[in-house]
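I would love for you to help me understand the pair of lines that follows before we discuss the fold together.
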Amino acid sequence: MIALVVRRLLQSLVVMLVVTLIAFIMFRYAGDPVNQMVGVETTEAERQALRESLGLDQPTLVQFVRYVGRVASLNFGVSFQFRRPVMELLAERLPATLELALVAAMLSLVSGILLGVYCALNPRGRISAALQAVSLVGVSLPTFLIGILLIYVFSVALGWLPSFGRSGLVPVTKHWSTGLLTLQGWKSLLLPAVTLGLFQMTLIMRLVRSEMLEVLRADFIRFGVARGLPQRRIYFRHALKNTLVPVITVVGLQLGSIIAFSIITETVFQWPGMGLLFLQSVQNVDVPIMSTYLLLIAFMFVMINMVVDLLYNAVDPRLKGSSRV
């Protein structure tokens, strides 16, 4: 297991170096941030002085080497737009994004697995057929349209939930405030979380259903039934455990995409998270924020993939031997 972790760490380091190069190349030619920071009346000399202060007048190779050095020391530069350290800006937005992603992930994971198991155990039931039909809608509709529909029904028509913003915050630490401790916080979080997690929930439900139907037809399940084992033990200890092995990969990637693609949900609901900050930085060609956001998302995906590899070995003992190779 230790050898597996060390190997995955080395592979993750290589991946992060490649992502750092891609981020630098992509956003190096995204546009001239100086044009977004100055007005029409700014002289060319003032523009050049600002460009030199930002280090944009240096050769591309020099800029990249300096960029890698800053990233290695966790110094991601200063925002061109806000004139503040990028890490400070992201730290202010990170709690909102993590809070939204955590609730959406738990909702999609728990609901998706439970509904998938139910549909697999009752494949011809009316409720299963209705859930399958609803899952098609959840997979087909784009996220922004789901959010708009939820706002119209629960905010405009019924008036039960707020349509935008993050409220009911309670300070936990100096840099962390959460809405999970208040009713108003949960009300403002519910619609964005459902919007963000609905696609993942329907995908997990359909995947668990199809995989579990396949496992239930296996010989070892029939042997367990012939031995007279309790149905609960057959379904949840043997069938579900073998179902989760192929599901883990898809679930891990989907949970990572919740954070990566929260931009749309945060924009629709004006949720003050990192996704909304990234969208604003794109509009203003704020390269430090854009590149740092990309590196942060890549780091989260790398960590999730590492956890998925470790879960493989925990769920399926047959893979422990292959991890030594």
